[in-house]
Amino acid sequence: MSEYIEHAKGGVSVGLVRKELxxxxxxxxxxxxxxxxxxxxxxxxxxTYGRPDPQRENTVLILHxxxxxxxxAGYYTAxxxxxxxxxxxxxPGKGIDTDKFFVVCPNIIGSCMGSTGPGSINPETGKxxxxxxxxxxxxxxxxxxxxxxxxxxxxxxxxxxxGSIGGMQVxxxxxxxPDMVRAAVPLATTTxxxxxxxxxxxVARQAIMADPNWNGGDYYDGARPNMGLAVARxxxxxxxxxxxxxxxxxxxxxxxxxxxxxxFNADFEVENYLRYQGIKFVERFDAxxxxxITKAADYFDLQSQHGVGSLVxxxxxxxxxxxxxxxxxxxxYPTYQSKAMVQAMKKCGLDVSFxxxxxxxxxxxxxxxxxxxxxxxxxxxDRVYAEIQP
Amino acid sequence: MSTLKxxxxxxxxxxxxxxxWVEPHSRVLDLGCGEGDLLLYLKxxxxxxxxxxxxxxxxxxxxxxxxxxxxxxxINEEVLDYPDDTFDYxxxxxxxxxxxxxxxxxxxxxxIGKKSVVSFPNFSHWLVRLQLLFSGYxxxxxxxxxxxxxxxxxxxxxxxxxxxxxxxxxFSILKQxxxxxxxxxxxxxxFLPNLRATFGIYxxxx
Lengths: 390, 206
Known about the structure:
The structure holds 2 protein chains of 2 kinds.
Chain A: E1 20-24, E2 31-32, E3 38-39, E4 42-49, E5 59-63, E6 90-91, E7 96-97, E8 102-106, E9 121-122, E10 127-128, H1 138-151, E11 157-163, H2 165-176, E12 181-187, H3 195-209, H4 226-240, H5 243-249, H6 269-284, H7 287-299, H8 302-307, H9 311-315, E13 321-327, H10 335-347, E14 352-357, H11 371-387
Parallel strand pairs in A: 5-8, 5-11, 6-7, 11-12, 12-13, 13-14
Antiparallel strand pairs in A: 1-4, 2-3, 4-8, 9-10
Helix pairs in contact in A: 1-2, 3-4, 3-7, 4-6
Chain B: H1 13-21, E1 27-31, H2 37-46, E2 49-54, H3 57-66, E3 69-72, H4 75-78, E4 87-93, H5 102-112, E5 113-121, H6 126-135, H7 159-169, E6 172-180, E7 187-188, H8 193-196, E8 199-205
Parallel strand pairs in B: 1-2, 1-4, 2-3, 4-5
Antiparallel strand pairs in B: 5-8, 6-7, 6-8
């Protein structure tokens, strides 16, 4: 996902928030990963907004995408120039209303935003894990989130909500912990990557691994593979846009010049934009985390991992209500992939709503201000919450 | 047919009749559900478990805003995904005249639903007949308000046609109502329905 953090119009916000840490699998305990590897201790960074109701039935769990973090809404300090990444959706009176709901947003394991990842210190060596960090899966991420829910004493979640890789976690939650989740909102996501999606991820990973500074993943003591990560981000960013949005945003416009420079500087606005996005990303993200998280997304295959190849079987365990949303111009996770999951949910007799929102912004549409999405989210959550009131 | 009495006037007269035929606590699929008014009504007053299918994104959004479950999609395709006997009723309200393959759709409907309610505007209403007879132009009425070149209604159906259609396709008509909503309130038509009714509503079964 991209850097589309916007201030809420009118400035309504959850206000000042704080990043919390929860650590589990302290020795002698370990967390066993799906790959068979063991890891411990494991730390999850998370934030909460709003308050639990007396029955603790109003939890909305927000799950972030590739480059997201626990900071979904609000500000860390009064001087903070930017709010959290989904501040347009999360806050008082917003789509996910923090006046009504207790919102939890954890950072995924494998990331570099506070949760245990390849850049964290390996207690066995006293140095960063680097390439010793085990490959994690979407299932591992969700199991770690379950540990956090247990820690927060949340037995039932009102709704799990997430887009893109966050949407994969949503789907993993409902099939892995069917009794815990009342409702689910998978946005702009898929039950498994297409060859196209895997291909783009692989090109991005190769860009990182081809950077000499990557050094097999052990670079935390020296220069970082910034160039590789920037190129990886540039590739990713293209897949989040669309032909239409790029034509509108850049067209063939030149960057502050009237003619070509006849060299390899950034002549076109789109080149300049992508370079800027790449450089900006390097400042805040770790190249190894990019590798691990994209690999987890590529491995994700809900029908194989939970349904012996059948999506219907995978969803047969869940009782959740669904609202599935896709966007017309999303060619990374096209609508047909959302429709495939809806079809399986129908066959399971699940209560599902599906809406394909007309949007020209490609995959990233779910992060952009969108009145329809906000209203649908609000209505759906209100309905689910109303249905459990005595 | 006896006079139909309704004290709830919030939904359209034809929808009131459909609602009166639906048993409480049943499972209902509404094909071409529009903004979800009927499903919301059935949910509130009959405690049904309902789902709609609607093509138009804005209408789909309005359903969700009302708390009605809805799938955006094509009714002809969406009906194919459900297991047999998923629903007690499948409602096809004022949509049959827009369906490309009515026989195929009705067959699909009666697989996934035990019963179905089908309604459509009656093309043999006297006003339609007179318009064509005297003006020589394709009829335009309140129930069929389109010109020939912009109408979504690709089928013209009369009450008699539907009865014959039931024999051709092989389904049974369990209940029927011929209604006129020329006047604001709407009433049921017992005498010469094929001539005097603006709408036909049928409860059909296998």
